[in-house]
């Protein structure tokens, strides 16, 4: 039996009214990917304010790996609400903050003592990670990569790519930031094999440590092991190993931004675990809170301990409500059952995506790790000309048919699939069928 039940058009009359109010009350620049107005949700199933039932394949941009309203998480939050709401960890110690930090220290790779700072958003985690690295190294420069997205504060925007969508108009960016090329196998020059190309990228990276910045000036190298907004591009093991080597040789802090690709989306708690490379600091957010706002900076104790007393922290960081949620979430996310499920969901999706690539010429590439998958659309397979218009049409059609879907990619020419890992097999296949029909409709 199908889960999707549409009784009005999307958006229906009630949604339309709220969307109009949104337009009046919220600033124009406030991002909006679909016209769905949510009323309630469980797992991968969303009901809108018009009584329509839809399937969620956007998963709050990777924030809902555990699905909507996971029972253990909600129960823990309700219990915490009855005890106290917040005290500010600067004023009084919150035991749940300590417990969560202990958990994250123990599940994050690295055979060294770790410490964890809790904050409220991914942006804040990255800000803190970079500041801590600067303090530790007494240096200012930061290396980041093409296609990166690290947030929307001035520092994290400065570290981010995709100028037109994220950075336009917000200039006066932070200085001493050096952006290097990140390997993108799909868009490699034709003359290279994959291995040759990765080797070339490694050599270019080394060269830029002469041409762009001297390693002795660099505090941190920050990279998403799988680019999120950049289009789910997995950074090859060899390239991450080179970053590790450069950091070790020059006393630079290696920061892995796992905010979108972490939290068991790929079948391992951290995406970088697929490569065996161990970063010095890991930034996490999104799904570790299962919907509650929280982020974490987990790192080598000697680095994390560098700033002076009072140098880091804030009013809401480590809120017991979010920590209660995250403790339950991390327990589930790190269980074998959940990690296996992520791998299994990924296998189903990847099988279908490969079939689509064979069927539809408008698809240039399909790629992903575990349950983090993307379809890249092009006007011409040989030239790989990005097709962002077709993506908008496919998303509109898919959402109108009851599947919530969003785009990604440096050229905004990809659809990303981030359904909750707890989605049932039936729901998953139903959603994939809807997406396939939309692609078929716009295929030549
Ligand atoms: C890789 C990555 N880093 C940082 C961020 C910023 O996180 P937040 O939106 O919670 O500030 C995001 C958000 O999408 C992200 O994907």
Rg (CA only):
22 Å
Reported CATH architecture of the largest domain: 3-Layer(aba) Sandwich
The count of strands amounts to: 17
Overall mean pLDDT: 97
What is the percent of helical residues? 25-40%
Description:
There is one protein chain. By secondary structure, this protein is of the alpha/beta class. The protein folds into two domains: 13-62 and 337-441, Aspartate Aminotransferase, domain 1, CATH 3.90.1150.10; 71-333, Type I PLP-dependent aspartate aminotransferase-like (Major domain) (Aspartate Aminotransferase, domain 2), CATH 3.40.640. It is 39% helix and 17% strand. It is built from 14 helices and 17 strands. The chain has helices at residues 13-25, 59-62, 71-83, 95-107, 122-137, 154-159, 163-167, 194-211, 237-250, 301-304, 320-333, 336-359, 388-400, 425-441, and strands at residues 38-42, 45-48, 53-56, 114-119, 141-145, 177-180, 218-223, 226-227, 233-234, 253-257, 281-284, 295-300, 363-369, 372-377, 403-404, 406-408, 414-417. The chain has a seven-stranded mixed beta sheet, with helices on both faces. A four-stranded mixed beta sheet has the order 1-2-3-15. Strand 2 and strand 3 form a beta hairpin. Helix 4 (95-107) packs parallel to helix 11 (320-333), helix 12 (336-359) packs parallel to helix 14 (425-441) and helix 13 packs across helix 14. The radius of gyration is 22 Å and the shape is globular. The protein starts with 12 loop residues before the first helix and ends with a helix. 50% of the residues are buried. The mean pLDDT is 97. Pyridoxal-5'-phosphate binds at residues 61, 121-123, 126, 149-151, 224, 228-229, 257, 259-260, 285. The site of pyridoxal-5'-phosphate (PLP) has 15 residues, from helix 5.
């Amino acid at each position: 039996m199908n889960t999707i039940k549409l009784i009005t058009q999307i958006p229906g009359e009630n949604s339309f009214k709220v969307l109009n109010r949104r337009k009046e009350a919220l600033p124009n620049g406030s991002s909006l990917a679909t016209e769905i107005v949510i009323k309630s949700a469980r797992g991968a199933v969303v009901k809108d304010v018009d009584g329509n039932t839809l399937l969620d394949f956007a998963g709050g941009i990777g924030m809902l790996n555990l699905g909507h309203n996971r029972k253990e998480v909600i129960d823990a939050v309700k219990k915490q609400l009855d005890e106290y709401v917040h005290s500010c960890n600067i004023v009084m110690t919150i035991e749940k903050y300590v417990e969560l930090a202990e958990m994250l220290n123990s599940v994050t790779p690295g055979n060294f003592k770790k410490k964890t700072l809790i904050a409220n958003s991914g942006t804040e985690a990255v800000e803190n990670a970079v500041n801590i690295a600067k303090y530790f190294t007494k240096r200012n420069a930061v290396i980041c990569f093409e296609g990166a997205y690290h947030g929307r504060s001035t520092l994290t925007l400065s570290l981010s790519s995709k100028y037109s969508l994220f950075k336009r108009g917000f200039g006066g960016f932070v200085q001493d930031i050096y952006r290097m090329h990140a390997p993108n196998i799909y868009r490699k020059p034709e003359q290279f094999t994959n291995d040759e190309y990765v080797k070339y990228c490694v050599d270019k990276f080394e060269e830029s440590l002469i041409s762009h910045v001297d390693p002795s000036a660099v505090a941190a190298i920050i990279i998403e092991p799988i680019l999120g907004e950049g289009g789910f591009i997995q950074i090859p093991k060899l390239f991450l190993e080179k970053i590790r080597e450069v950091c070790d040789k020059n006393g630079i802090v290696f920061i892995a931004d796992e905010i979108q690709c972490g939290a068991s989306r790929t079948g391992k708690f951290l995406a970088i675990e697929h490569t065996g490379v161990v970063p010095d600091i890991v930034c996490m957010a999104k799904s570790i809170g299962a919907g509650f706002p929280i982020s974490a900076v987990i790192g080598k104790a000697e680095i994390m301990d560098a700033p002076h007393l009072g140098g880091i922290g804030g009013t809401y960081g480590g809120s017991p409500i979010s920590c209660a949620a995250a403790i339950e979430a991390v327990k589930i996310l790190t269980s074998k059952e959940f990690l296996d499920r992520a791998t299994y969901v990924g296998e189903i999706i990847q099988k279908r995506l490969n079939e689509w690539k064979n069927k539809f010429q408008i698809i240039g590439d399909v790629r992903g790790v575990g349950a983090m998958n993307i379809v890249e659309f092009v006007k011409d397979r040989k030239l790989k000309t990005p097709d962002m218009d077709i993506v908008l049409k496919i998303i509109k059609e898919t959402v109108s048919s009851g599947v919530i879907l969003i785009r990604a990619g440096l050229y905004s020419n990809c659809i990303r699939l981030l359904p909750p890992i707890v989605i049932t097999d039936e729901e998953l296949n139903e959603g994939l069928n809807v997406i396939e029909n939309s692609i078929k409709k716009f295929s030549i």
